[in-house]
Design brief:
Elements lengths: L4 E2 L22 H28 L8 E5 L3 E3 L2 E3 L6 E3 L4 E5 H9 L6 H19 L2 H11 L2 H30 L6 H11 L2 H9 L12 H14 L15
Parallel strand pairs: 2-6
Antiparallel strand pairs: 1-5, 3-4, 5-6
The structure holds zinc ion (ZN).
Zinc ion binds next to strand 1, helix 3 and helix 5.
């Protein structure tokens, strides 16, 4: 079965039906340069996540592989198209970062800024942590045992925990390396706000269907990122036991 974790509220079942290769657009030198800068930034953020998680997990951390793509990519979870956005595939333990998604964040989702990008990378790395902790396996089993609506609730808990872990990363990266500029946390919170299920659904279809939420509302996504950032305490991110999410 296809198991992958997306940043946005897509239906993973759609993924195998994505037609892979639209011909790549020619990129102007400026756009290409921007792409190179983004790619370099993503590499730096990933390296920062490795430093933090190696430390927090006392060298029990197994580093994920980074795959950057634009338009489409093949993974152990299936073929992803540009509509998929960034994702993590537990099957091959790779973090897939769609560079063109950052343009969408800036232009369509109104979530610009380097730390908005860092949040995206750290969220996917959060899914990798969950995979190492066995949560991905549990989700896989649950999928066959519970109703779709109930599974969606678990999915929200999983996604909010990935947001929390992104916040924990930012907390420790700041302490270890002093990486944050003044507006960085606001950029991350703005991005979390922009990709809440309620907001995306409202914008796409003019109404919200809470039982179809898979990633949490804007308020929840901001709350859990912020909780991770404020506490830096991995023990406080048990979204699966949080009464407000049950
Ligand atoms: Zn996710």
């Amino acid at each position: 079965m296809l198991v992958l974790y997306l940043l946005l509220g897509g239906n993973p079942g759609d993924m195998s039906q994505v037609v892979p290769s639209q011909p790549q657009q020619e990129l102007s030198p400026e756009v290409k340069k921007l792409g190179d800068e983004r790619a370099e930034f993503v590499r730096v953020v990933l390296a920062d996540t490795e430093d933090v998680w190696n430390k927090l997990m006392q060298n029990q951390y197994k580093e994920p592989t980074l795959v950057m793509f634009s338009q489409s990519v093949e993974s152990a979870c299936g073929i992803a198209g540009s509509a998929t956005g960034p994702f993590y595939c537990p099957g091959d333990e790779k973090v897939y970062i769609d560079l063109s998604f950052f343009e969408d964040m800036e232009n369509k989702l109104n979530a610009p800024g380097d730390f908005a990008m860092a949040y995206v990378v750290a969220h996917e790395v959060g899914h990798h942590i969950q995979n190492l902790q066995g949560t991905a396996d549990k989700m896989h089993q649950l999928r066959q045992q519970v109703s779709k609506e109930e599974y969606n609730r678990y999915s929200v808990m999983l996604e909010l925990q990935a947001d929390f872990l992104a916040g924990v990363w930012a907390h420790h990266a700041q302490r270890m390396k002093n990486i944050l500029d003044e507006n960085d946390i606001d950029e991350a919170l703005n991005a979390a706000n922009a990709i809440g299920d309620d907001r995306l659904q409202q914008e796409a279809q003019g109404r919200t269907v809470p039982e179809s939420f898979t990633h949490g509302t804007s308020a929840q996504r901001m709350y859990w990122f912020k909780k991770g950032f404020t506490t830096g305490d991995i023990q406080q991110g048990n979204t699966f036991q949080d009464p407000s999410l049950r």
